[in-house]
Design brief:
By secondary structure, the protein is of the alpha/beta class. It has 3 domains: 11-109, Orthogonal Bundle (Fumarate Reductase Iron-sulfur Protein, Chain B, domain 2), CATH 1.10.1060.10; 117-295, no CATH class; 299-419, Rossmann fold (3-Layer(aba) Sandwich), CATH 3.40.50. It contains 21 helices and 9 strands. The chain has a 4-stranded parallel β-sheet, sandwiched between helices. Strands 7-8-9 form a 3-stranded parallel β-sheet, with helices on both faces. The chain has a two-stranded antiparallel sheet with strand order 1-2. It is globular. The protein starts with 10 loop residues before the first strand and ends in a 20-residue tail after the last helix. Bound molecules: iron/sulfur cluster (2 copies). One iron/sulfur cluster binds next to helix 2, helix 3, helix 5 and helix 6.
Length: 436
């Protein structure tokens, strides 16, 4: 039995079954098919910054050939430049989970990525949800008065500046009714609850058509802590969620999330509790109850007055090797937009952004700009994303550099796709590769 204080995973669930980290890394046959899709390799053109390079370095690290103390700079570089976008997994014949390997390396070297202040603030969401909500509301109030700009220059909380830049100008907190006998639990992401009220409202409205929805407000999923490298805290939060779910509606209620990253993280709960036999079965049941917003779309999607120019999907996540959900979303877009749904080739520099995959500030803008550039090359008018934070981050760059385009969360298609706003194509040029 595992020690509950263990700070890293001793086994991963891989396409080849449950494997030790070393075995999982060794399945990488060094074919290099992942290199061209990796944003960090595209930027640096250096082998250690490719998925293959990361796997080889991790192998040396686990086998003791590469010492953390002596090679700290190299390890920091390869950990902090990985966007956790999961593109390498999608393009790897063996579906080697390089992002999961990077996360393990993060835990084993204790090289954290996020600023401590941000980590402690988000931890407050677990320890004192009311205080957390109060701080967010207070912060938004100060922002309206224009006072937060001054705070952002204090060392350690420079991330406030980034938050100020990407947040929409006006935020009003979502309103909903409590229900007595719920048939579904909605677990809004941090961004839906505190930054994007429209995302909350759309997901809630979609689920309410068929269900009595109860909202688990201000509930941390453990994803942030997992990515940060704090496995104990991630397990604790997830265990709390699993126990609460088991006590609500006999553990039979589906749980809706609006974030694909949260979805994939929660679905992977059995991996986190594989070494805890007493809890594993509960984790498996919990994992089977997780739903993503597209599960609540109408069964029959009638093609409406859809966009008259190219539409793309930015959908990638470090937390899943199962692409079935992504394929379903692609199918929805193909049905609704037919030949206007376009996918850019990987080499065109399309990279997904992942809010949880914050990377070092020297790389982040380059990754984002290459995504916007890819949209411009294919004259894409609308790009759909599957996470709120991605929508916020990408909107910021799109608005700045390519104002003719727009970023939408996929949930927007569930209710009013027939009325989805149309825009005239910028010009008649160009689809590089159509996927329908
Ligand atoms: S991670 Fe996959 S695609 Fe990349 S080198 Fe290894 S086996 Fe090949
Ligand atoms: S997750 Fe993304 S950034 Fe990290 S190695 Fe894979 S492709 Fe590169």
């Amino acid at each position: 039995m595992a020690n509950s204080s263990q700070t890293y995973l001793s086994a991963l669930q891989t396409p080849f079954g449950t494997r030790s980290l070393y075995d999982s890394v060794c399945y990488c046959n060094r074919c290099g098919m992942c290199a061209n899709v990796c944003p960090s390799y595209q930027q640096t053109q250096q082998e250690p910054f490719s998925p293959r390079g990361r796997n080889q370095i991790l192998r040396q690290f686990i086998s003791g050939k590469l010492k953390a103390k002596r090679n700290r700079k190299l390890l920091e570089g390869i950990i902090r430049s990985c966007a956790l976008c999961g593109r390498c997994v999608q393009n790897c014949p063996g579906r080697i989970s390089t992002p999961q390997h990077v996360l393990e390396l993060r835990r084993r070297t204790k090289i954290s990525l996020f600023p401590r202040t941000l980590f402690y603030l988000l931890r407050l969401r677990q320890k004192s949800p009311t205080l957390f909500a109060g701080i967010v509301r207070g912060g938004l109030f100060l922002r309206r008065l224009g006072l937060l700009q001054f705070i952002s220059c204090i060392s350690g909380i420079a991330w406030v500046k980034h938050a100020l830049e990407i947040l929409p100008p006006k935020i009003t907190f979502p309103v909903y009714k409590e229900v007595k006998d719920p048939t579904l639990i909605y677990l809004p992401s941090l961004e839906a609850e505190f930054m994007m009220p429209s995302l909350f409202e759309q997901a809630y409205k979609l689920a309410s058509k068929e269900h009595h929805v109860t909202v688990w407000r201000n509930t941390a999923s453990g994803l942030f802590e997992y990515v940060y490298g704090d496995l104990r805290c991630a397990r604790k939060l997830l265990r709390g969620l699993i126990t609460r779910h088991a006590r609500t509606g006999n553990g039979r209620l589906p749980i809706l999330t609006d974030s694909m990253d949260v979805y994939n993280f929660l679905v992977s709960a059995p991996q986190l509790f594989a070494e805890f036999p007493a809890f594993e079965k509960k984790a498996v049941d919990f994992s089977a109850s997780i739903r993503y917003v597209t599960d609540f779309f109408p069964k029959k999607l009638n093609k409406g007055k859809a966009a008259s120019s190219s539409v793309q999907l930015f959908c990638a996540t470090a937390f899943s090797q199962d692409v079935s959900l992504e394929l379903k979303i692609r199918q929805i877009l193909c049905t609704l937009f037919e030949k206007n749904f376009v996918e850019c080739g990987y080499k065109q520099g399309i990279v997904p952004l992942s809010g949880y995959g914050f990377v070092i500030s020297t790389h982040a803008p380059a990754y984002a700009l290459s995504a916007v550039q890819g949209m411009a090359v294919s004259q894409t008018q609308s790009v759909f994303v599957t996470n709120g934070l991605t929508a916020l981050e990408l909107s910021f760059y799109v608005h700045k550099f390519y104002p003719a385009a727009q970023v939408r969360h996929i949930v927007e298609l569930g209710d009013n796709y027939a009325k989805f706003p149309t825009r005239e194509p910028i010009n008649s040029r160009t689809k590089t590769q159509t996927s329908c």
